[in-house]
Specification:
- Among the domains are: 10-178, Phosphothreonine lyase fold (2-Layer Sandwich), CATH 3.30.2430.10; 205-301, 2-Layer Sandwich (Phosphorylase Kinase, domain 1); 307-490, Transferase(Phosphotransferase), domain 1.
- It contains 25 helices and 27 strands.
- It is globular.
- The N and C termini lie far apart (61 Å).
């Protein structure tokens, strides 16, 4: 994003226009963080209809707004506009979702006829100005800044089958229909457009498939690799040679700054770099640059193979940790040579990452996506764009071009290859520890598991120093790989002495992190907000009360902590949180599932009420658990019958209420009826074909969505029901999992579905969740195969420790809980030691913020939730300090 040296205050333009038109008494202005909204004092806005969007760049936005206000302030349609030029730039950035990008002004006409009239008036008023095409909308006319789409005027949301909140509109019969904000104009079939048909409608998919696209008169497009706001990247064929090509597209005015430059200038810079590196073997050969429909395209040779990011994951999965280490070291040498040779040709890369390096089938490396590269003698386009974790800190604040930034990126990429990831070091407040010290501590903590030689760890630390002047260069890195490390002439003596020796995270660090996380959760609670605790919504937003991402997950962990520590701050907080949740739950019906459903909420409320002796909470929890379940196509733990049944089992153990035992039996019987035999001799539970989602027909193996979680519940149900069929099905579920285990060395892995390749060993789909069920089943049956595979799952978890995110669903917290399950089930203290190693590795990524401790989730956000935030991490760390069974599990005797 580019800063604006002469920032124009867009709201001041509004105030001038209100005074000039004498309309300030008609309008109510509401300034939000991003939007300035204007509504009529007497106006009533429709819930949905045809709305208008006007695009602009940071350069054109002031004039676009002035001209649009001349029209809109005299009309009867509510509207909003982006408040600042910096936010306009962000809205037009390459990273903005295609369904949201470009919408500088939004207008909510009071009727369809007004929509058509206002669109024409705004089109005429803004003619000749520049702005990007809005991909979710239809342009009013060719090259118009005015666009339209049918959608919601008032934000209304409902829960989807997946338990996520989605925006919706209503069809003519009043049925809810999701209001999808995608990068394609797709109005509902029943919405009749009031606008003139000045542009042809998008071609039907069938016709598009029959007619090959030929770009630049030379390149046929075979498929899209990806679509982003800046344009697509396509695979195709050069029809003149038959050779495979990659074609990159740059859309006009995306990432446009106040000087008028945009992503087309970046594509031209890439073309110059490819021309400079032509015939060197470092990068693809450039073929042609051309314009089509105002969009700029660059065709280049397709490099066969996979991105380094993919190679790292797939190679580790396929060959196991021992062989991978040797292969990875070969690639590290190649990476050092690649950067060195690029610099020798006068090219500073500026975005050297595992996503921008291709691994050819022969293992050799090639640079791709060189749009940010700068050639010696060229004037660099100003930018702060980069890749967090891989771009040098000074790069992300617009520092001058320097090869030292590439050395940092080289170190981060080497770290990714050797360790499987780069730690996400969130900013600390106050910043008492330098980033290089924090990185060194993390690297030292995971070095034992990885068996990293000291010289490789020292090389990474040297390349990734905070001070660009102290960083190792590629020559010194190459020397370290050859077993010698000469200090180059001019290198500042004593620099290393100013950095404290790296240290491994300790048990005291774990205890301190627990205290800081509790402080964070206590202080972050806000009963006046829409969500009781703040969460990340990058992967979607759930009901604010649920276990998965809502208040119930956090409440359960704080209740657990209070029961073990007696923290005097918590009784009032637990009571407040429990009543906040109870007030927002509907006893008439509940959604199924443990993590996304009502009975998971009831579990948390009951435990909270019992801990603080609040009878109203425990009574409400039982009533909530007994409420009728909404119909569901799901069988699993998170969304379906197994999760509902498991929660009922916990509450039955707490209350001895026979009605809850009946719910357990009913859930188990439903699963008996839905089970389908497999060729393996086992059973599975496919997502029913009638499910309104892309999950229909899938047969998952993991704990969250498949056989493992369902089998685990059936073991619990069998102990309550006494029905041998429930136990038989649990055993059959185990047979299915045994049949689909994949052994790589000592590690046991599983695919998400039987026909897939093995997936990462997490709770949701992989070894940690499968292993948790298998060891329970082994305890009941004594089947040694189950014990062996559960132990193999621990190898998969430990081998991948440095590569994992930190959270419950997909990370170290869930994996560590599995290791503790193994310790409890087998009595082998080695598994608790392994879990404690994971806890120390997890804690090495902590960030201190005054008295708080926070952790990044897999998207780089701070979240408090169970599944991808602090609550789930805290639950695991507490188990390493106390001998407790796992939260959200029901233990059976014997």
């Amino acid at each position: 994003m580019t800063s604006h040296a002469t920032e124009v205050d867009l709201e001041s333009l509004l105030h001038r226009a209100l005074q000039a038109t004498g309309t300030d008494a008609r309008w109510t202005t509401d300034a939000e963080e991003m939007w300035c909204r204007l509504t009529l004092q007497s106006g009533i806005r429709r819930r949905q209809g045809w709305k208008l969007h006007v695009s602009a760049t940071a350069a054109s936005a002031p004039e676009v707004l002035v001209r649009a206000l001349d029209v809109l302030l005299l009309e009867d349609a509510a509207f909003k506009f982006v408040r600042s030029l910096e936010q306009v730039s962000a809205l037009n950035s390459r990273a903005t979702p295609r369904g949201s990008a470009g919408k500088f002004i939004t207008v909510y006409p009071s009727s369809d006829s007004d929509a058509a009239r206002l669109a024409l008036a705004l089109h005429r008023a803004t003619a000749g100005l520049i702005g990007p095409r809005i991909l979710s909308d239809q342009p009013y006319a060719p090259h118009s800044l005015v666009h339209y789409r049918y959608g919601a005027f008032v934000g209304r949301r409902r829960l989807s089958d997946q338990g996520l909140l989605v925006w919706f509109i209503e069809d003519p019969d009043g049925n809810p229909v999701e209001d999808k904000r995608t990068g394609q104009y797709a109005p509902p079939a029943w919405a009749v457009s009031p606008f003139p048909a000045s542009l042809p409608l998008p071609p039907q998919k069938e016709k598009a498939q029959r007619s090959p696209v030929l770009l630049g008169g030379r390149f046929s497009v075979r498929e899209a690799i990806r679509h982003t706001n800046k344009g697509g990247v396509y695979r195709g064929t050069d029809v003149t040679t038959g050779g495979p090509v990659v074609i990159k597209e740059a859309r006009p005015h995306v990432e446009g700054d106040a000087s008028g430059s945009d992503v087309r200038d970046w594509l031209r810079a890439e073309a110059r770099t490819l021309e400079k590196l032509k015939h060197t073997g470092l990068a693809p050969e450039p073929l042609a640059m051309f314009e089509t429909g105002g969009h700029l395209f660059l065709a280049q040779e397709e490099v066969p193979g996979v991105p380094l990011r993919v190679w790292v994951a797939e190679r580790f999965r396929d060959v196991g940790s021992k062989r991978y280490r040797a292969d990875a070291l070969v690639q590290v040498r190649r990476l050092v040579d690649l950067v060195s040779e690029a610099h020798a040709h006068g090219c500073v890369l500026r975005d050297f990452t595992p996503g921008n390096v291709m691994v050819r089938p022969d293992g050799e490396l090639r640079l791709i996506d060189l749009e940010l590269a700068v050639l010696e003698g060229d004037v660099a386009l100003p930018t702060k764009v980069g890749t967090p974790g891989f771009s040098a800190p000074e790069r992300l604040v617009g520092a001058p071009v320097s090869p030292t930034a590439d050395y940092y990126s080289l170190g981060a990429t080497v770290c990714f290859v050797l360790c499987g990831k780069v730690p996400n070091l969130l900013p600390e407040e106050p910043a008492d520890r330098s980033d290089e010290q924090r990185f060194a501590d993390w690297l030292t903590t995971c070095a034992g598991t990885l068996r990293l030689p000291d010289d490789l760890a020292e090389m990474m630390r040297g390349l990734m120093k905070d001070d660009p002047g102290e960083r190792w260069d590629s020559a010194r890195a190459r020397a370290a790989l050859l077993g010698r490390d000469p200090v180059p002439p001019g290198h500042r003596a004593g620099a290393a002495a100013r950095t404290a020796e790296p240290k491994v995270a300790t048990q005291a660090d774990v205890e301190s992190a627990v205290a800081g996380m509790v402080n964070h959760l206590v202080d972050a609670m806000n009963p006046a907000a829409d969500r009781l605790w703040p969460v990340s919504v990058l992967a979607g937003e759930t009901d604010p009360c649920t276990v998965q991402q809502g208040a119930a997950g956090v409440l359960a962990v704080l209740t657990w902590y209070f029961e073990r520590t007696g923290d005097p701050r918590l009784p009032e907080l637990i009571s407040t949180a429990g009543n906040w949740i109870a007030a927002r739950t509907d006893l008439r019906s509940i959604r199924p599932g443990l993590h996304f459903g009502g009975r998971g909420i009831a579990w948390a409320l009951y435990d909270a009420g019992r801990a603080v002796d609040d009878r109203m909470l425990t009574d409400h929890a039982v009533a909530l658990a007994l409420a009728p379940l909404e119909s569901t196509p799901s069988h699993d733990i998170t969304h379906g019958s197994a999760g509902s049944g498991l929660a009922a089992a916990h509450l039955w153990h707490c209350t001895d209420d026979p009605r809850l035992a009946e719910l357990v039996v009913d859930a188990a019987d439903r699963l008996v009826a839905a089970a389908e035999p497999e060729p393996s001799g086992g059973v599975s539970w496919p997502v029913p074909a009638e499910a309104v989602s892309e999950e229909a027909g899938k047969r998952y193996l993991g704990f969250a969505h498949g056989t493992s979680g369902i089998g685990s519940f059936l073991l619990t149900a069998a102990a309550i029901s006494g029905n041998p069929r429930h136990r038989e099905l649990a055993v059959a579920a185990g047979e299915h999992l045994v049949a689909h285990a994949v052994l790589v060395g000592a590690a046991a892995q599983w695919p998400a579905q039987a026909t897939d390749l093995p997936t990462a060993p997490y709770w949701c789909h992989g070894s940690a969740g499968v292993g948790s069920f298998l060891v329970r089943l082994w305890q009941r049956t004594g089947d040694k195969r189950l014990d062996d595979l559960a132990r193999g799952a621990t190898h998969a978890v430990v081998e991948r420790a440095s590569r994992a995110a930190l959270t419950q669903c997909h990370g170290l917290a869930g994996n560590g809980d599995f290791l503790l399950d193994m310790a409890d089930a087998t009595g082998d203290p080695a598994y608790r030691a392994m879990a404690e190693d994971l806890a120390r590795l997890l804690v090495a990524e902590r960030a201190h913020r005054d008295s708080h401790v926070v952790f990044p989730n897999e998207y780089g956000d701070v979240s408090t939730s169970w599944s991808d935030g602090s609550a789930g991490i805290l639950a695991f760390l507490l188990r390493t300090l106390h001998t407790d069974s796992r939260l959200w599990s029901v233990q059976q005797p014997g």
